[in-house]
């Protein structure tokens, strides 16, 4: 059974066009690593003028920590993050150790 997950983060206003351009053509190696980490139905939404990103995906694996560690260890993903991270503005209220802030699911309808 898939676990639905959502996270949010700010986006620097001067980086919006770059972030959109990057995500219009995500590197194949990044996409492959996301799939290999048991993530499906992944979307990122942008809310302007607040410049908030909302990410949603479904996790199909059994060990989220291990799958995220494998993603973080991937050299292609690391290079992708080096480009994307300067675009992002983490929320000051995020939990310790988070970059994107986790969100609680409060409603769902299939």
Q: Provide the β-strand percentage band.
A: 25-35%
Q: What oligomeric state do the depicted chains represent?
A: single chain
The tally of domains stands at 1
**SS summary, helix count:** 4
Structure class: alpha+beta
| CATH-defined architecture | 2-Layer Sandwich
Q: How would you describe the overall organization of this protein?
A:
- The chain has 110 residues and is α+β, with helices and mostly antiparallel strands.
- The chain has one domain: Alpha-Beta Plaits (2-Layer Sandwich).
- The protein is built from 4 helices and 5 strands, in the order E-H-H-E-E-H-H-E-E.
- Strands 1, 2, 3, 4 and 5 form a 5-stranded antiparallel sheet that branches.
- A hairpin with a 4-residue loop joins strand 2 and strand 3 (52-59).
């Amino acid at each position: 059974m898939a676990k639905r997950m959502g996270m949010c983060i700010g986006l620097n206003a001067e980086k919006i066009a770059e972030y959109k351009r990057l995500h219009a053509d995500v590197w194949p190696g990044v996409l492959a690593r996301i799939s290999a980490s048991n993530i499906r139905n992944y979307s990122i939404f942008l809310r302007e003028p607040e410049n908030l990103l909302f990410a949603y995906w479904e996790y199909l694996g059994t060990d989220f920590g291990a799958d995220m560690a494998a993603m973080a260890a991937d050299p292609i993903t690391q290079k992708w993050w080096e480009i994307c991270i300067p675009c992002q503005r983490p929320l000051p209220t995020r939990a310790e150790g988070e970059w994107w802030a986790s969100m609680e699911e409060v409603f769902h309808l299939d």
